[in-house]
Amino acid sequence: MENKIALLGVGLMGSRIAERLANNGFQVSVYNRTISKAKELEKFNITVCEDVKSAVQRSEIIITMLSDYKALNNVLFADTAISYQGKIVIQMSTVAPDQNLLLKKEIEKLGGSFVEAPVLGGITQAKSGELIVMVGSSKAQFEELKGLFSIIGNNVKYIGQTGQAAAIKLSYNQLIATMNTAFCMSLGYVMDKGINLNIFMDILRSSTLYAPAFDKKLDNFVNRDYENTNFSLKLLLKDVNLVVDELEKSRVDCLTLKGVKFLLERGIHFEQGEKDYSALFEMIYPKK
Ligand SMILES: NC(=O)c1ccc[n+]([C@@H]2O[C@H](COP(=O)([O-])OP(=O)(O)OC[C@H]3O[C@@H](n4cnc5c(N)ncnc54)[C@H](OP(=O)(O)O)[C@@H]3O)[C@@H](O)[C@H]2O)c1
Description:
Blueprint (H helix, E strand, L loop, with lengths): L3 E5 L3 H12 L3 E5 L3 H5 L7 E2 L3 H6 L3 E4 L4 H9 L10 E4 L5 H13 L3 E4 L2 E2 L2 H6 L2 E6 L2 H14 E8 L3 H29 L4 H9 L6 H5 L1 H6 L9 H17 L5 H15 L10 H5 L4
Parallel strand pairs: 1-2, 1-4, 2-3, 4-5, 5-6, 8-9
Antiparallel strand pairs: 7-8
Helix pairs in contact: 8-12, 12-13
């Protein structure tokens, strides 16, 4: 297995994946637009590069964990002197299927190969190597890389060709948005009625309506505490926008999701974008 890996983008997720790989014997180099964030990784024996080109040059495999398609283009292609000849680019950020296809085309033009591998799970799972990794690539690429993926995640699934893993990932993030919205509506209503929340949750947990996702952010909602960002509201809105476009193309009605989009946009308007996405509760049941 290739041992030299570059991680481009060490935000909440990328930093944990870099740490996990370094702790498992890989020679990890990182690049981050805001270099001060990357410097915190030096204590794990990770090399911090000042530019993308040197991170790519030092590595056989390049993992991208950036916000969105625009950031991916900025980082991968702004410097035209970067050669991807013989390199494998593993694109783990959440983007649309067509966006990954465009990135694949560009990387292949520059001599590299491209694999999409979006993940499900948050920063805790990224640090402990318990992400769900969904791979869109050729079967041969999957076989070559599955050892590496098994260090990043404990559930590694081959989905299909490029674009299919991006699509399945978006289908799950749609659920994050709508399920949390549905739960916040019931929670806000029950709180407003002064009903004991333990009773509300006990009944919910014992019923078929229950989903573990409801307990995940319960404390954030009840305490109206959204400061400890695991997944930002602005990135959830980015995903909701992508899913709305995708569902419309597939002729799946997405009126419900457009309602959630509106709530998240309200969150951005009230400067909650950098906060955890659980700040969505404030848009649904604002503090009186
Ligand atoms: N957080 C989660 O639970 C989670 C789970 C699964 C998948 N994801 C997906 O994984 C990706 C990363 O998420 P995250 O939570 O780690 O996000 P994050 O903490 O906000 O990090 C985003 C990264 O993108 C960089 N970036 C943003 N805009 C840029 C630009 N225009 N040019 C260059 N770099 C730019 C940031 O650099 P700076 O540090 O300089 O801002 C940072 O390295 C996203 O696609 C997200 O949807 C997140």
